[in-house]
């Protein structure tokens, strides 16, 4: 099981690197999907099959489809890829690289300290104990201690829904059938 | 595989491999035969013959078709995105076959017994969208792109209530494990308490499989052939096989979730499962023979304004019943 964990971890990191360096937006998105799938396998190995399934259904299967949909609609051709390649000049990498290197150093420092304190790298959770968290426990946690968070997230989604509904509303339908038929007449 | 051979190939491993290869072979053969069954049935209902020349009753038509597909030139258009163009047809074949792994065919017959089996099926069917969308995009052709757009919007919309329609079944069975769900139907098949769930899931299933009333991504009289316009040879063949495995998968899932899977009197479980699945498939073919294709905005309106509220009402009722019974 541990080999699966490290292998999918490596795939996730490599795929994410490819996301950043690709010039074609659709190719970058495909690598991002691979990265999400690898993360789902990590969740599964760590004993959270429910979260793993939701990761695939929601992130890889729904959110990313919308991303691909929008990118397709933009109809980016070869010209966009060339422009993207120009933007990815070596000079561009300096700033982000320094920031990422600092974060990486911090992460390694914390991990090393944890190991020195005698804790396992995983913080003593599932991969060593083999405990599996099923959907019922996730549900009880969501609607127990985290109820407020769930409600706030649903409010946020509702706001998004209302906004999308407002943007998608046809102005000629808002004033009833009379003006709708008039605008149809004007169009023909 | 080599390791297993050297260490004597324990009895369990042999059983698993036989199980796996047998299911794969039968599934492929059946999906291939399905195109002949469908064309003969369509012929019957539309008062014409259908393919009846190759072999007795035209049974060997599929052999002729596959020889044709395999010997055609495998052409990739120079303006296409090569890597994605090749990848796209493989995705649909892989995801539908993987989803079939969780289908409980009979006691002891099936590839895996996964605790999140139902979620795995939903995950694979949601990944299947990429095949159509990317195929349409990579072809770099406006008809294909329009087909890809339609596929993305249609399949995303219908996936939403596809998952919700099944939650009633999950509530009644108390598990995402498909074998537990079949076992929970010992006394009463879920098609009776979950009649709304069955109706909505069947509609969503046809839309996910892109079958005729919902085949707008390819609608051949306006988009040439939609997302697979530029595909030829076995790459087209993979889309084709993917569609038929998809129909078999949706039918098998309907049987498992709503019609008691392998349960039934007298006959052995395997026969019951195959019989029920075949009946559902024939119903799908009948739908294709009978229904015209809706307009695109009608399709979206139908999905969001009719089917989604119906599934939510179904969830509400089921939840109330389960709570009051507990």
Main features:
heterodimer; A: 188 residues; mainly alpha; Four Helix Bundle (Hemerythrin (Met), subunit A); 0% strand; globular; disordered C terminus; B: 326 residues; 12 helices; 68% helix; cell membrane (chain B); transmembrane (chain B); quinone (chain B); oxidoreductase activity, acting on NAD(P)H, quinone or similar compound as acceptor (chain B)
Show the helix and strand layout:
The complex is a heterodimer of chains A (188) and B (326).
Chain A: H1 2-21, H2 25-45, H3 49-74, H4 78-87, H5 94-116, H6 126-129, H7 135-142, H8 147-168, H9 171-174, H10 176-187
Helix pairs in contact in A: 1-2, 2-3
Chain B: H1 2-6, H2 11-45, H3 61-71, H4 82-100, H5 117-127, H6 129-138, H7 142-173, H8 178-183, H9 195-208, H10 233-258, H11 269-290, H12 296-325
Q: In CATH terms, what is the architecture of one domain in chain A?
A: Up-down Bundle
Task: Give the amount of beta strand of chain A, in percent.
Answer: under 5%
Question: Structural class, judged by helices and strands of chain A?
Answer: mainly alpha
- Helix content, binned percent of chain B: 55-70%
The count of strands of chain B amounts to: 0
| Largest interface (C-beta under 8 Å) | A-B, 25 and 29 residues
Give a short account of the largest sheet of chain A: none
Record field, number of beta strands of chain A: 0
CATH topology-level fold name of one domain in chain A: Four Helix Bundle (Hemerythrin (Met), subunit A)
Overall average pLDDT of chain B: 83
**Could you say which overall geometry of chain A the principal axes of the C-alpha atoms support?**
globular
Structurally, the number of domains of chain B stands at 1
Walk me through the structure:
The complex is a heterodimer of chains A (188) and B (326). Chain A has helices spanning 2-21, 25-45, 49-74, 78-87, 94-116, 126-129, 135-142, 147-168, 171-174, 176-187. Helices cover 80% and strands 0% of the residues of chain A. Among the domains of chain A are: 1-88, Up-down Bundle (Four Helix Bundle (Hemerythrin (Met), subunit A)); 134-168. Mean pLDDT of chain A is 80; it is low at 177-188. By secondary structure, chain A is an all-alpha fold. In chain A, helix 1 (2-21) packs antiparallel against helix 2 and helix 2 (25-45) runs antiparallel to helix 3 (49-74). By secondary structure, chain B is mostly helical. Chain B has one domain (67-325). Helix content of chain B is 68%, strand content 0%. Chain B has helices at 2-6, 11-45, 61-71, 82-100, 117-127, 129-138, 142-173, 178-183, 195-208, 233-258, 269-290, 296-325. Chain B is globular. The A-B interface holds A 24, 26-27, 30, 33, 49-50, 52-54, 56-57, 60-62, 65-66, 68-69, 72-73, 75, 132, 134-135 and B 81, 83-84, 87, 114-116, 119-120, 122-123, 126-127, 129-130, 133-134, 136-137, 145, 148-149, 152-153, 155-156, 159, 163, 176.
């Amino acid at each position: 099981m541990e080999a699966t964990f490290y292998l999918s971890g490596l795939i996730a990191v490599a795929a994410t690197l490819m996301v950043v360096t690709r010039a074609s937006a659709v190719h970058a998105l495909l690598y991002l999907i691979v990265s999400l799938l690898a993360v789902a396998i990590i969740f599964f190995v760590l004993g959270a099959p429910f979260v793993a399934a939701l990761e695939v259904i929601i992130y890889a299967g729904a959110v990313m489809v919308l991303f691909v949909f929008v990118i397709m609609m933009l109809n980016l051709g070869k010209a966009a890829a060339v422009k993207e390649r120009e933007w990815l000049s070596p000079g561009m990498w300096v700033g982000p690289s320094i920031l990422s290197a600092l974060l990486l150093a911090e992460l390694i420092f914390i991990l090393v300290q944890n190991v020195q304190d005698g804790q396992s790298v995983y913080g003593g959770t599932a991969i060593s104990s083999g405990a599996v968290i099923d959907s019922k426990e996730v549900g009880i946690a969501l609607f127990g201690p985290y109820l407020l968070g769930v409600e706030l997230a649903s409010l946020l989604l509702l706001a998004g829904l209302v906004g999308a509904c407002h943007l998608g509303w046809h102005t000629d339908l808002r004033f009833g059938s009379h003006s709708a038929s008039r605008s149809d007449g004007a169009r023909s | 595989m080599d390791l297993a051979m050297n260490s004597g190939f324990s009895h369990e491993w042999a059983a698993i491999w036989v199980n796996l290869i047998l299911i794969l072979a039968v599934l492929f053969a059946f999906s291939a035969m399905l195109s002949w069954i469908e064309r003969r049935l369509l012929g019957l209902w539309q008062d014409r013959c259908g393919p009846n020349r190759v072999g007795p009753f035209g049974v060997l038509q599929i052999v002729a078709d596959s020889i044709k597909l395999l010997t055609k030139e495998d052409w990739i258009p120079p303006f296409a995105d090569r890597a994605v163009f090749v990848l796209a047809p493989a995705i649909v074949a892989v995801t539908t076959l993987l989803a079939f792994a969780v289908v409980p065919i009979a006691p002891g017959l099936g590839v895996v017994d996964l605790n999140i089996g139902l979620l795995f099926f939903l995950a694979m069917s949601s990944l299947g969208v990429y095949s159509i969308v990317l195929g349409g995009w990579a072809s770099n052709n406006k008809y294909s792109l329009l087909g890809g757009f339609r596929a993305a919007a249609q399949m995303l919309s219908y996936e939403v209530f596809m998952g919700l329609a099944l939650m009633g079944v999950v509530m009644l069975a108390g598990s995402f494990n498909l074998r537990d769900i079949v076992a929970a139907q010992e006394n009463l098949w879920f098609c009776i308490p979950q009649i709304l769930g069955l109706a909505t899931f069947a509609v969503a299933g046809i839309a996910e499989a892109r079958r005729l009333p919902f085949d707008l991504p390819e609608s051949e009289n306006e988009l040439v052939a939609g997302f697979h316009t530029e595909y030829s040879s076995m790459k087209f063949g993979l889309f084709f096989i993917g569609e038929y495995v998809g129909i078999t998968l949706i039918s098998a899932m309907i049987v498992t979730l709503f019609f008691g899977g392998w349960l039934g009197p007298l006959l052995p479980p395997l026969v019951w499962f195959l019989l029920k699945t075949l009946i559902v498939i024939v119903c799908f073919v009948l739908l294709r023979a009978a229904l015209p294709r809706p307009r695109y905005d009608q399709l979206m309106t139908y999905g969001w304004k009719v089917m989604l509220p119906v599934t939510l009402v179904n969830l509400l009722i089921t939840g109330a019943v389960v709570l009051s019974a507990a």
